[in-house]
Every structure is written in C-alpha cells, then in structure tokens.
Amino acid sequence: MNAATNPLHVALALAAAGVPVLPLRRGKVPFANCRSCKDGACGGRPVMKAAGPCRCPAPCHAWAAATTDPHVLASPVWAPVWREAVAVAYHPGGAGLTVVDLDSAAAVAWAREALPATRTVLTTRGEHWIYWGAMASSNAVRPGVDIKSLTQYARWLGPGTGRMVDLSAAVRALLVKEETTPAPGEVVSSVPERATWDRSVATGCRHNERYVRTGLERGLALVRARTESGAGSQAFGVARFLAGQHARCPGPCGLTALGEEITAAAVSVGVPEPYARRAVANGLEAAVERAA
Ligand SMILES: [Zn+2]
Ligand SMILES: [Zn+2]
Ligand SMILES: [Zn+2]
Known about the structure:
By secondary structure, the protein is of the alpha+beta class.
C-alpha cells in the first residue's frame, strides 16, 4: 500500500482538511467496540444522541469515534486498528456536509431528475451526491436512497467531481416522509379551511382551466391514496410537479391555492398540518429552484 491508499495517510490528510474520520475494517464497517465499550456498557460518547461519559481512546462507537485530531488518529491505541483497516470513513455531519447515497442506477437516474446537481463520487453500485450543510440522517428515504449526515458515517471514496452546492429544499424534503407517519391511534386532525383554485386567481397563467384542474385532481388522488404512509412526501412531489407546470407562465397562476388543496388532501389522510404545509411549501420552492 502506498501513501495515497494507506488508510492512515488518507485519514490524516482528510483530518487536516477538517473532515472527521474513522477506520473501516473488512466488510467496510467500523471496528467493534473495545471490551469496556461493548454493548454500550460505557454509556456512549458525549456526542451521541443518548450522550454518555465515554472517553475511550480506542475508535469505539462507529461514527462517534470520528475525529480530526491527528494525535488521536496516530496514537498507539489506534495503530493496530489502522494495520487491519481496509478503508476510511468520515462523519459528513461533522464536516458540515450531507451525502445523498444513491445505491443503484435507478436511484442515480431519479436524483438527476429530482435533485440539484452537486459534487458526485462514484461508488460500487451508484454515486454519492455531496451537499454543503448538515441535516438529520435517514436510511431508505426512497428505494436505494440514504441520507448520511449527522450521526452517520460514509465511506471515503475520493474527492469526486463537480461543484458542491448548498443543501436545497428538495434534499431536506426527503426527510418529511418520516415525520408524517401518524402515531397509532392518533386522531386525524381536522382538514384545514381550504382555499380552492379557480381561474380567477390565475390571471397570468398560460394554461386553460381544464389543464390545471385535471393535473390538480390527479395529484390530489395520489396524495389521498397514501393512507398508510408517505403522504407527506407525495404531497411534496405533487406540489413540485404542479408548480413546475407553471415554470414558464408569466403568473400569477394561483399556486398558493393549489398548495392549499394539496395540503388539505395530505391532512385528510393523517399528515399533521404543519408537516403537510412544510412539504407543500418545499415542493413549490423546489420547482422554482429547478426552473431557475
Ligand atoms: Zn472503547
Ligand atoms: Zn465507550
Ligand atoms: Zn400557469
């Protein structure tokens, strides 16, 4: 192994650039906890969600061991670990980054349609899309799509190509889905007062009423069909799609009223109103970003 591929050398270079790193063992996973940290007996590290007092000098607790401190990385305690390490991971959230991990060709194709272009890194099966800004992490926000940022690690596969851009509403909205699942037995909140779309609020729209209504009704049906889960992200998608239809209208097109109808449809299948509103607002905003 030369200096360019030796995991410790890679790790020290990243740490010097402010990226917290940790070693990965065979199988591309973090090393097991030491005996005193086994099964969380130590209480965990202070940076973890359930913050504990652990000050273990070994690279225990997966992402929570990630550090930029060269003295820790090159310490005698980590030395045997680096000898076994096969790869380096980093804590994206700790570096102020978010990695959208696209694990299949289909997921990459989806991202090219749905997300702003940014720096990309090739992976074994797909791509990492890297954005400025940290957010909560979540697995499987869509088929083959994970968000890795805070409290997560991502494998370092090189600097990638392309200009990195800020996290956009389209990326943040991928998390809306999880928040919208109503608690079991929770009473569905009342449907908000609805402002309905009609031609009179769309004085600058180049489409006829039938075109807009048909699109809206189809979108509302998609949202209402999500009675189990995913109505929030569906509302986001419908809002983005419908707003996109008006990207070349001089406006106004009554998008606020369209948004109200989508929000009401999401609330009617159990999405808490604040989340529904945010998902729809994010969707309308994402359409503007894509058109810009
Ligand atoms: Zn330990
Ligand atoms: Zn520990
Ligand atoms: Zn229009």
